[in-house]
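Hey, can you fold this?
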Amino acid sequence: MNKLKTPKIRLNITMPKFDFGNFSFDQKNFVSVFFRNLYSTFPGLFSARLSLQEQSLFARRLSLLSKSGVPLFESVNILKRQTKGANRKMFDRISHDLSQGQYLSKALMRYRKVFGNFAINIIQVGETSGTIAENLKYLAEELDKKRELRGKVTSALVYPVIIALASLGICGFLTIYLFPKLMPIFLSLNVKLPLATRILIWVSRFLINYGWWLILGLILFIIAFIVAHKYYRFRFFVDRMILRIPFMGGVIQYYHLSNLTRTMGLLLKGQLRVIEAIEVARDTTASLPYAKELDHLKIAITKGSSIARHLEKEPKLFPSMLTEMVSVGETTGNLSETLVYLAQIYEQELAEKTKQLSSVIEPAMMIVMGVLVGFIAISIITPIYEVTQHLAPR
């Protein structure tokens, strides 16, 4: 038998263009406009980003290459090959600026949000003094210290959150899934149930009937908080309240003080003026109360006031030990050394505070978890025990 040959069909698909009178719609143009608008609305989705660890690696590798005699232009090109995406485009631009004869610090100023004023100023000082390799190594070490500080604070706060979520999960399982299976038995006993059992029945019914509304309300609260956090007054209020939380507020305070003193001390060591060092420290801090006080400090210094005299006005933000040490540093002319020494003290205090916070929160959370689970267990066991006590043997 002869086999039938299936004819080949060739499809030629083109992007259609629709025309409605004076209005035309081109799909290609629509896609390009869509992504352009998306980029302008959410630039953070497509912009370059470097974590503290990546910034430290960049500075350390650049220092090693510079020590080996490799020009900065070629060094950046070598590091560029190890990146991709938006970061690769960023290094392309930095490499292009260096090839045009610009300084590295000036090339990095285009990406101030990525590298930060502190890193740019340290590099600029190295370029001026001819010690770019040493300054890059120093910058890498300081970024590592900053990352370690952030890690200590994060680790101290993560464990309580995990315990809290575990407690809520266990209590939710017992209240929403297990207890409703036993509830018909308790209601059929026709006896007065213990107070704990009645409270648990009410909670269980509320979660079953209104649980989704509760979750919806929580989601709306989170959205409202995120929106409100964009406003300066709300963020300032939240940052101020965080500093007043027992135990945790002390950890956050020492974290900010160690960062501020180290940043200012290192910049003053690099022969920056006090006003410039305060401006960089103000830009690097994440706490609005401290940023506000640094703004006031800059104005006070221009009017002839000393640093210590102004910081004494805010004892809740700047402890007496800091103001006294700063006063000594100003008097002796060793303010940069004094600030670096204070940074070391506050780093040690931060390590102790995080240990104390963990030692206080861990047993407290375990006690709370035990009380909640124990309350549910007693609410279930007590009515069963009372019924069995009233059963008469045959």
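Oh, and this one too while you're at it.
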Amino acid sequence: MRELIGGVIIAVILAFLEYKGIFWNPSKAMCLTCKNLIILNLLFISGAFFSANLFRSFAIRIPRAREFVKAIIGGILMGIGCVIALEGNISGGVLSFAGMSAGGLLILAGLVIGMYFGVVFEIKELEKYPSTGGVQIRVPKLNYLLALVALGIIWLLVGKHYMFAVFALLGAVFGASRWCMFNAFKEPFMSEKVSASLGLIACLLVLTGITAVLKFKGVVPKDFGVFANLGIGGFVGGLLFGLGMGVAGGGVESVLWRTGEGDLKFLIAGVSFVGVVSAGGYLVKKSLIPGEKLFLPKLVGYPGGVAIFLAIPLLWLLIVLWNKKTKRLIKRYF
């Protein structure tokens, strides 16, 4: 239930940012050449850090060596995918999708295929290595103090820019709800649960609906969140990014909020990702494989465009509910 509620709240916050003319691209904000955007991700991590301590889930998580290797490989794959597609799983698979970008639709298709291979990899790995191992260091007596420290960090980072506080709130909501795009996709294949899937579906439906209204009324420009990645670059980049998500265990949003709750595996994945997108941002000013920029309703009409982008998460909802009843997709139980 918390993923579902979190998904709705996340959609509303992202829609508010759109209303203010802010397109949140956490992947780009992790590029060291984008210094003005880094603070947004630092606020996001601080918000997740606050949430983890407030709910006493913060812990220094040290995985075994194999998980560190996966984190590095996953971060590199996501970084390469981001450089090629111009976007990551949140900016491309959620925000551009909700903005009815044809390129966003193509990126999401690539993400789905890449994440599927990631799920296959994880299932094979679990069959060979049933336990991930690792160490957790908890400090329950310090959690509330650390939550106050987090608020202090947020206050210092926000300064006079009150809008920055929204990104700390976003990080807190992501962390508290444990919203993770990869978990949402793999859930039907690996368990009988539907909570993570419902969280993603709710986010896409609510955000797409609000964005459609904002663009129809002219509050938000039609090309807002629409980038030149309709082509092989968008698809291939999305596929590599999705595969990296599967290897690392989550996308950029998970790298950020799980770093905030003390998971060193995701910190390493983030460092690897930062290295690749920073080098790519410096060396490659545009996509390696140029594509077209298309707001899909211009091609199929506004009602048709909205219908297409609402039908996709609704179709996934039907598949998730069907699988919960039939268990046809489940490969392994926990």
